[in-house]
Amino acid sequence: MNSLTAGHFRETYSLSHVLIVDDFDANRMLLSRLVQQLGLKPIMASDGTEALALFAAHRPGLVITDLCMQDMDGIELTRRIKQLAGEHFIPVILATASNEDSLIEQSLDVGWDSFIRRPFSLTLMKGKIHSMLRFARMHHKTQQLMAAREQEEQLAEQLFSRAVEQANVEDPRLTLYKRPAATFSGDVVLSARRLDGELFFLLGDFTGHGLTTTVGALPLSETFRAMVNKGYDSRQILEQINRKLRSLLPVNMFLALAMVAVSADGRIACIWNAGLPDVLLQRHNGRIERISSENPPLGILDSIKTFSAHNTTLSEGDRLLICSDGVIEARNVSDELFGDERLLACFDQTPSAGLIDCLCTSLQTFTDGQVQSDDVSMIEFHAGPTTSVTPASVSPVSQPSAEAQAGAWRWSLELQGPDLAQANPVAQAMSQLLETEGKAPCWDPVFTILTELYINALDHGILGLESSLKHSADGFMEYFKQREARLGNLNSGSVQISMQLTRFAEQQRRLDIRIIDSGPGFDVSQVLARQASSQEQPQLMGRGIQLVSSLCSSVEYFDNGSSVHAVYETL
User: Which tens digit of pLDDT belongs to each residue from 327-342?
Assistant: First the structure.
């Protein structure tokens, strides 16, 4: 223990001082000589009132009191001394000449630590004094060790929380809250944004709480952020998290989790619930939808192939709440649960914002200082446009003036049949690009370009889906259902992706992207004409070709639209 810690845990009660309380002078003198023989300093009081004053002034480490006294008996004195001592262990020895067992029974609840009848053996009394002071020293030492451990745990928790949650993205629509039941929390709240602007956030609740539950928090956060940064979708992110936790967690630990992916324009949400209380989605008209857990917690099964998500559209004014079971299972002094009804009342009390603030106030009033046994964590999301719907465009360079430099590379990938439903080639392509060229803002638009071109090839070229379905919210849901069904039955078709990077002087780069699908193609000119003539209002159907064209220096379609060549250039 360092000097600062030692100073902080300096004993506040003197174990060399003994308070002797008796209304008979002879008894006080006898005990005083006995205490002095043991090398201790006696402090004597003739009644309870005087004893309390001397206890407060001298703070002795041991009290020896008579049981039967005039103004205040030893039972009441012991009760008050224990109250004054608080968390400190101050042993009290009761001494009496009475043979009434009823007095002893009455004094059991006040907390005396030893009892002796008069007349007593001096040797026996010496033994009791020695043992009580030994217990007091052990208790004080234990307190020091516990306080030192708590201080170290608090420091470790601060460092751990920074490592796990400091990288959370800030979004004005999103509020994250966590209140641990112990120094270390078994709950984890994370958020991250993909390069195309899609927002991901999750609340995870590991089995139990405290230090042991943190073993999964770090791999959870690292896996979540790495998968989001590489461009994977929500199912693939959950699959990798589950695989990681399945290999790391002991058999008696798992992770209950709810995760939400919100599209870049804030209008589409994919909600997963695996073992948490209902995710609550309140529409702008006040109606509340429940997204119940239809999936087991993560870390139990080898795969999440059977997991299902709730896909929905969002409108401005909708709000979503995720909470851990520590909210609805909070208890008051009467052992009542906070429950679902009180939680829902906050939706009525806060019609526009501040759900978490309302719940915190309601919980504090309900529990009234009652120590809680579980962590309390919440995430609140308000649907609406974000300040960054699409990645910032990059001014293209039409014709590089410099000649190509050495060091160009080419990467390609072909997916066929069922692999198209399982693999994420965009993430693989971005991984190749960033590992080779280094992570830099200039490469962010490439993710959007690859995603739009690949989704177009897969959805329309291979699956034969119609974009016109996405003109409405109901149409979008039908589009998604058809997509899931066709992917599940996909046994044929292929998509080829290739990238070729050429380096020029002054850090200029040219990235040629080619995607070829085995589908029948489409009339590119007709699609462009339809998009150009559409009203300038936000729609659920995409404007992918226009977006890709705005980010690239050139986009060309071949073979009736089944082959595309896009050129992206950096300054």
Answer: 999 999 888 999 999 9
Question: CATH number of the domain at 409-570, out of 3.30.565.10, 3.40.1440.60, 3.30.413.10, 3.40.50.300?
Answer: 3.30.565.10
Q: Indicate whether 124 pLDDT > 80.
A: yes
Calculated CA dihedral for residues 46, 52, 54, 57, nearest 10 degrees = -170
Three-state secondary structure call for residue 551: helix
pLDDT 10s digits, 38-62: 999 999 999 989 999 999 999 999 9
Please tell me the distance from the alpha carbon of residue 489 to that of residue 204, in angstroms, as a whole number: 33
Instruction: Report the pLDDT value the prediction gives residue 320, as an integer from 0 to 100.
Output: 96
Nearest-5° angle of CA 235, CA 239, CA 242?
135
DSSP summary character for residue 278:
P
The CA distance from 539 to 525, in Å, is: 20
Q: What mean pLDDT is predicted for residues 283-307?
A: 93
Strand partners, 14: 60
Q: 284 pLDDT exceeds 60?
A: yes
Length of the chain: 571
Q: What is the pLDDT of residue 1?
A: 36
Sheet containing 255-262, strands listed edge to edge, beginning at the edge strand earlier in sequence: 187-193, 199-206, 255-262, 268-274, 310-313
Instruction: Give buried/exposed letters for 284-294 (b at 16+ CB in 10 A, else e).
Output: eeeeeeebebe
Which class does domain 167-382 fall in? Answer: alpha beta
Top pLDDT among 536 and 92 is at: 92
Q: Are residues 343 and 278 in contact, defined by beta-carbon separation less than 8 angstroms?
A: no
CB-count exposure of residue 350 (10 Å: 0-12, 13-18, 19+): middle
